[in-house]
Design goal:
The protein is built from 14 helices and four strands. It is mainly alpha-helical and about 350 residues long.
Length: about 350
């Protein structure tokens, strides 16, 4: 059996490309396939943690021992922002970014093996994720109802499981039928990244999570006041004029919806008022998925498709954590009771 030719004998390997050069080639190759957040996280990993130590080294000269030393130092590193040791997730994700770079070099014939795959890594335990309860979701929504339509936007996230970018990219046609009435399902096909529509995070394609009866009714009330309700291509949620935080007159349906601003100026302050600072907007997606899983009223395939995952195993592993208390096992039509929703005031448009 012929042995594979050593990487050092290939024309590309003899050029002695640095790790930074290989990483830049990888970024250019995958730029269209990665989400904006993944590209941003990779860029930060390279700039802050990889390039300073390994960036200028010829990639075919980096040994397992070199990578082990780099990894050990990374675990002892302190964040410039928090002044605390890097989190386990940051260490893990930075290692994944470096490993992707070595894998790319391996495919190009620049190295014979991925040194990151041979180092000894710390055993990490996933922390138990806090679980938003139904009373907490209701109360958060009630407080966000003080600034319409923020309460509806929050309930929409909690009862459809959409990611932030997916919700920000919604158009009126995604929740209505051709006749203009609110449909029984929302059509999820895009997400909003860096102020532009892009493909969804996963390759699940268009998915159609259901809209519960009360949520559908609240959407109908909301759309009755929407100035572009007859345009299926119009954004579903309004933007806001600069400097009008909290003022109803500041809503602007011709400006793009900024979900990051909603989280910063409305959602986070509400969490602080309720003493729930440990939670984030993404926990609404966890609330949705965990409720689906533990209600045992929906098939594995339904839950997987509504979440937009490639497999149910991933859904269960990532979102199947049990809540601290027994979850109310009933359909969303029941737990999303109309009596718990503050009626939206109709305004002339």
């Amino acid at each position: 059996m012929k042995l594979r030719r050593a990487a050092g004998r290939t024309p590309l390997a003899r050029r002695g490309q640095t790790l930074r050069e290989v990483a830049e080639q990888l970024i250019a190759t995958t730029v269209r396939d990665l989400t904006h957040s993944t590209r941003r996280n990779d860029e930060m990993a390279y700039r802050l943690h990889i390039y300073p130590t390994l960036g200028s080294r010829p990639i075919n000269s980096i040994s397992v021992m070199d990578v082990q030393s780099w990894y050990n130092e990374l675990r002892e590193k302190t964040s410039d922002r928090t002044k605390q040791p890097l989190s386990d997730s940051t260490v893990h994700n930075t290692g994944v970014t470096l490993s992707k770079t070595f894998d790319f070099a391996l495919r190009l014939g620049l190295i014979a093996t991925n040194p990151y795959s041979h180092i000894i890594k710390a055993r990490t335990r996933r922390k138990r994720r806090p679980f938003l309860t139904m009373p907490q979701v209701r109360r958060i929504g009630e407080l966000m109802d003080e600034h319409e339509p923020n309460g509806l936007i929050l309930r929409f996230a909690a009862f459809t499981g959409l990611r932030s970018g997916e919700q920000a990219a919604l158009r009126i046609g995604d929740v209505t039928t051709m006749m203009g009435a609110v449909a029984s399902r929302v059509s999820v096909s895009k997400q909003r990244q860096n102020h532009a529509d892009a493909e969804t995070k996963t390759e699940a394609g268009v998915r159609h999570p259901p809209l519960s009866g009360p949520l559908k009714q609240e959407l109908e009330d909301y759309l009755a006041t929407h100035p572009h309700r007859h345009d299926p291509t119009a954004p579903l949620w309004p933007g806001r004029q600069p400097g009008t935080k909290g003022h109803p007159a500041g809503l602007d349906y011709d400006r793009p919806f900024d979900i990051a601003s909603l989280k910063r100026y409305y959602f986070k302050p509400v969490l602080k008022r309720l003493g729930l600072e440990d939670f984030s907007w993404h926990d609404l997606r966890h609330f949705y998925a965990t409720t689906l899983v533990h209600s045992r009223r929906y098939s594995d395939k339904q839950v997987q498709e509504w979440m937009g995952h490639a497999s149910y195993a991933f859904t269960l592993d990532r979102y199947g954590h049990a809540p601290e208390e027994d979850i109310i096992s009933m359909p969303f039509d029941d737990i999303y009771a109309r009596s718990n929703v503050t009626p939206m005031e109709r305004r002339a448009v």
